[in-house]
Fold:
Amino acid sequence: MSTTPRIYPPAPNTPAEFGSVMQHTPATIGAFFDLYAHFWQQGQVAADIKEMTRLRNARITDCGY
Amino acid sequence: MDSLARALSEAPALQAKYAAFFRATHTEAQVSTTLLALCRARIELIHGLDPQAQALLDQIEAPAKVREALQSGQFEQLDPQAQAALTVAEQIPFNHHAVSDSQIAAVANHLGDAGAVSLLTACAFYDVNARLSMVLAATDTHPG
Structure:
């Protein structure tokens, strides 16, 4: 897996990370954050269960986040 | 079994936001509908969702050689843009860490940075929809 950015953010001299690179598609990332906030803040499943499954998923997929 | 949209409608607000996000991945950077459909079909075929993939290929009236390429994973007969996109898309389900710098560069060369970001995001969620569909025993992969 590469450790160097493959796509740089649209704003010059900005560190390449998820949020900054996704600014190439601002409507998409806006909709994603809207979805993500709803997922974490609403619903029947407790936050600790969601966090536990998130961590387990990250372990399985070898996600750095 | 029921449609994915019907299954997700048990959480209507979440479904609406997910559907809005999913639509945005298809419209914002203007990646061609055909190219997105090819990548989606390939990912669905990898997951064994043949009927769903064929329905999608019917919608874009994909010719036989395109269908064969997606079934076999041999993309040499397709145009360079499709080859670049599919080379990355087919690694998303089970081999995403193997996607190389040059493969991403090839996609960005064809689609631009915004197009590459849109395509990669869309492919990730084609994989999500396919997995959701299987877990929920849904009849399709359309979130609504």
In short: Chain B has a mean pLDDT of 94. Chain B has seven helices and no strands. The helical segments of chain B are 4-8, 12-27, 33-46, 50-59, 64-72, 80-89, 101-135.
